[in-house]
């Protein structure tokens, strides 16, 4: 499988701030890749380096086989970008802005443009200064999806979209994926990432802390189990990988490290399991676990936030 | 919290933002007094001279439209006849631009939404704008009154002139306050307010032209349309010829009423919205928009149009003045000397020296336009759409060069327009229009390389120090202007004057157009521009 984006050891500083601190990122061709991290983690900075808008201080980056800075113009014709803050020209209409971005990118599909405007319920003849935040966002999303490109770089594209529009957005991401195109999706919306992404990278303070498929990432964390048995459960808290166990005679609730799950189930069967429910960790829980330290420092209890 | 809480803080903020702009407007307007007084004294030293010229003036409706209905033959009345309506228009434009700047433009940029969420009352923003602008008009009026008194004019009439000008400026501030409420863009608000100033000027002109010529043969009592116009009110105060103070009631009542309307509208609409909804636009872009150059043109054309109108009007005014100036120059050595110094030409023909001085002003205006136009890329970059545009197939050089092309092309258009208007109007009144149009257009275009230097400088600082670019470019413009245009009058040493590009422009038509300085200026401009483009290509986008 070829790589659409490959970044290693990327460093970018702004004065004293080290926005990127040896970041790695690898996005395969044809996949939808989630890009997660708390505010200020460096997602937008990474994207701007990839787009040749910022120049990296150190590290290697390649995009569609080219160099993000040196080959910027040629690469830009093959990608579409939705910025995190969509700024339009106040006195141009949304329709004009869509056509303009399309043309500057090298042309856009008229039929698809019409369909997107219809699906996103955008009024293209309103001046941009009168658009709400969500509508400005739609202009950028429509302009991106109306372009015939290999790579979509989307920086929080749905912030400001209502749930209906979010669903339409997800449909289009699936469609471009079916067509074999690549998507890099930075997002704070876990359900969106879970629904769309083949793989995710989680970054923190300019560094990649986790990268892989959701299944792989889940493997690194805990599953919540609730069980009812025929005989009283004993010795559970002492089992390897068990956390926060609350045992009440024949009932128990606890979390277990995913790689100890098999061992634990064998242990439970000796008490005649009657019912058992297991909840795989959500992406949100994964995320919270990574930032648990930070949250605790700020006086927030990770588990409390999760449930 | 009252609706006015926080006004004082906003007033200080507005004064800080305007600390350069408003003083320039005030000085640029008040400077008409010494110029006109000198001209009146040179040309019409005796009452008999003044009666004679006013007799012929009252026979020319066109002249009455442009100036005003003469009210008497005293020196003071003659000064008013020569200057009052022009100064009133300038005070009006200063006021409308400033009010819109501190109200609608703040809303447009989202500044007032943030300010409004802090502890300021609903009316604080508009009140602060009006306080600042009223203050500016009072300063202007005070300066005018003092200057006239200093020239030995009767105190009553001089104060009447100052008060009348201040009042007219304040009325237009009220007009702009309303315009800022009913439109959604500052451009539209500026347009409406400036149009009201223009209409006021023309309506007064009609009233004066239709007025009754009195039996003395040199005074005119204006017809009723004059009374409909704020600019008419200041002339109807009849400074030095009866001083009708009660007329001041009209501007004050109008101001109070319009402010009341503006406040009422503020309550009825939401922040950021207007009363007149934005018109809808095309759902599809025209092919002309769909390129970096097309986009730059679209973003810049409104500014260019405004400047073109202003420069054609100014050029026409200069052309129409040339005959008057010619008479004045024939008689007074002092003025001739001043003009010759301004123009930088030694013993040249005085008329040519006058035109050369005017060309230098056109050059300064063109340079001002260029600097304004080249600040657009910076605002597109800082929190604007440039990020998204530069992530398309548009290269940085293409993007910046497109704005540069519009700015430089625009400056050339402005100089041609001003020069042609000067030549045409001068030619129509004194003959030989065709030749004069060509001469004056050529003379104006000689100024282009100086404007190019400032364009190059603006691009260079944009490439090197984007965060400081706006301040540095305007500072360079101001310094060039002061050092170059006034350096000799101020007695600055040549080495200092040489830093201004304006110093090096040949004083055409007083001097002949020598190629070497023009080529040198252009070469420096190109070098600066190229450096700016190269630097911009190599730097981070600064959002
Ligand atoms: N132009 C700049 N100058 C100085 N610091 C900057 C600049 N741009 C970004 N930073 C800093 O770099 C860090 C990373 O910012 P970035 O915008 O990449 O975060 P992000 O992950 O996109 O956050 P968010 O989720 O809020 O969008 C932050 O600490 C930010 O303050
Ligand atoms: Mg971001």
Automatic annotation (TrEMBL), chain A:
Q: List the PROSITE patterns hit by this protein, alphabetically.
A: ABC_TRANSPORTER_1, ABC_TRANSPORTER_2
User: Chief subcellular site?
Assistant: membrane
One GO molecular function term of this record is: ATP hydrolysis activity
Mind telling me which InterPro entries this protein's record contains? AAA+_ATPase, ABC_transporter-like_ATP-bd, ABC_transporter-like_CS, ABC_transporter_ATP-binding, DrrA1/2-like_C, P-loop_NTPase
Task: Give GO cellular component annotations, separated by semicolons.
Answer: plasma membrane
Q: Which CDD domains match?
A: ABC_DR_subfamily_A
The reply to whether Nucleotide-binding figures as a keyword in the UniProt entry is yes
Instruction: Give the highest taxon in the source lineage.
Output: Bacteria
Write down the membrane topology: Peripheral membrane protein
Share an example GO biological-process annotation for this protein. Answer: response to antibiotic
Provide the alphabetized UniProt keywords.
Antibiotic resistance, ATP-binding, Nucleotide-binding, Transport
Q: Does the keyword Transmembrane apply?
A: no
Localization recorded for this chain is:
Cell membrane
> Where in the numbering of this chain does the ABC transporter domain appear?
5-230
Q: Which family does it belong to?
A: Belongs to the ABC transporter superfamily.
Q: What is this protein called?
A: Tetronasin ABC transporter ATP-binding protein
Q: Which organism is it from?
A: Phytohabitans suffuscus
Automatic annotation (TrEMBL), chain B:
Q: Membrane: present as a keyword of the record?
A: yes
The answer to keyword Membrane applying to this record is yes
Say which domain of life the source belongs to.
Bacteria
What are the record keywords, sorted? Membrane, Transmembrane, Transmembrane helix
Q: What is this protein called?
A: Exporter of polyketide antibiotics
Query: Mind telling me which residue stretches traverse the membrane in this protein?
Result: 22-40, 77-100, 120-149, 155-176, 188-207, 245-265, 304-322, 353-371, 404-425, 445-465, 472-495, 515-536
Name the species this protein comes from.
Answer: Phytohabitans suffuscus
